[in-house]
Amino acid sequence: MATPAATMAWMLDADPALRWQVERDLLGAPADVWRSTRARVSTEGFGAALLAAQDPDGRWDGGAHFPGDFFGTAEAEQPGQPWTATSWSLNQLREWGVPAAALGDTADRLARNCRWEYDDMPFWGGEIDVCINAFTLANGGWLGADVSRLVRWFPEHRLADGGWNCEAEEGDSVRSSFHSTLNALRGMLSYELATGDTSLRSTRHAGEEYLLRRQLMFRASTGELVDGFVVRFVYPSRHQYSALAALDYFRDVSQSDRTARDPRTDAAVELVRAARQADGSWLQGPPLEGRTWFAVDAAEGAPSRWLTLIGTRVLEWADGGSSPDA
Asked: Is residue 191 part of a domain?
């Protein structure tokens, strides 16, 4: 199914953080076109607004993974968590395509002023949670920080079944998690692409095999579809796994490693295809609860530009790179 011209125009009528990816990934625009749009992300719209929210000491909202005013408040007793602190804000800026230069000496300021809520550990050394460490590895590679401890950490903490689990370090699980494993893989791939360091590639490939053996969506024990999160597509996905998020990762892997799509992704591809609306869009799922700086996508149940970008490029990759109608 080719993307209708009206839907493509709707995606282009968007913040530069989204538009440049539509130009590059869906329209195949010349590099000077999408790079020109990407250059606007740090000075306009979402990117500029999030950069402006940075604290003078380099943090966002006064904390590393949680706002400085979070613990001990009524908000801490509510479902979800705030998405406004430093690690989440860096993730968004990096994923939107903001150049590291736009953040100036942020890496140095965070090294001096930001420590994790867990055991007051130094920011760029990470802590014990694999998802947090994955974000930090990716963000450190992007900003040029010393994340050598984390390069060593991921091979050392991979579980026997091939992946990772945020609960493993507290002794609560010996089985890998879909969420944690995908976050670990994303972090390692982002670090490799930012730095050129391929020392984690074999570890990454082993983690990819954990997901592929499960066809991105099935339990190893029973062969049943994993709990509902696999079929819930939402943007921003933050840390949450879905078949769509996993396929978008494997699309990136296919491009970076110059490999063909693994047929074990077929079931996930068809699940994503089935969620596509008649106009070529995907609908926003239930957003993750918690404080945000500002809205960046549609309300639940409405057509989502971000999910439509991701879903369209995933299906074009899965189908061999067919061109959309322009």
From this structure: yes
